[in-house]
Predict the structure of DUF4429 domain-containing protein.
Amino acid sequence: MSRMGDVLAGFHAAWEFGTDSVLIRYERGIRTPKLFQALGERRVPLAAFAGVTLSPGKRGTVVLRAEPRAGADPLMEAAAGQLKDVHDPYRLVLPAEREALAERYADELRARIDDTGPADRHLVAPPEAPLAFKAYDGKASFDGTTVRFRWFWTGASTAKWKAGDQSFAVTELSGVEWRPDGHLRLLPREPRELRDGTPAAVPADQDPAAVTFGLGYGPVHESLPFAAAVLGAVRDRSTAVPATVVPRRDPADIAERIRHLGELHQAGLVTDEEFSSKKAALLAEL
């Protein structure tokens, strides 16, 4: 691979090549697509690439594009092939005079690709929570563990008002369905079924597990990173080792127990070693 720190700068983004990854930094200018501005930068491991192409672009440009492996990037998995070229985060547009340089980088990337098959886990980090955006019929928020929908009286359907504001733990979900200019729907681990056992199809505007877009609500640069963050958390849930939750003690209770321990120590009922050991154990519970 090229020397660590080598940079290939194009329109709206620059790729910095490392020994095991490519750091993609997006510009924040007014002409830069809003999705790129929202992403800021992304580090993509070389193991996440399935292929690289270089092709002629418009008006004296060339386009270097990396193809991520299926399942390696939660953003692209959530997008499900629906992104327009202008929003493609793996697409770098360069002046035509840099074609030879771009071809060299493309060849070096291709030489480092070992596996082009689907990835068994996400290799690219999802956008970080907390995230929130306004849809047409409600506000969606995600704190890293729970998705919440709060309905707007001006846009939500009667079905959603009757259901009330919704809260979904990522442990209850199997995935996310995102449709640009359409909706974001949370997919439960146990889909609803009709009496005959077939999946129940509910329109997004009637589904309490979905928020709808339109009239400037739910733009790509807000709703897609949100969907990717939720999808990343859902996938992590299936591979994460459950952590033991240790309840926090009331500081006032700890202080009272230490005071009582001190009285026993002064009375000679607790040795110096026992006092120090028990006090340290109590403080560790804070």
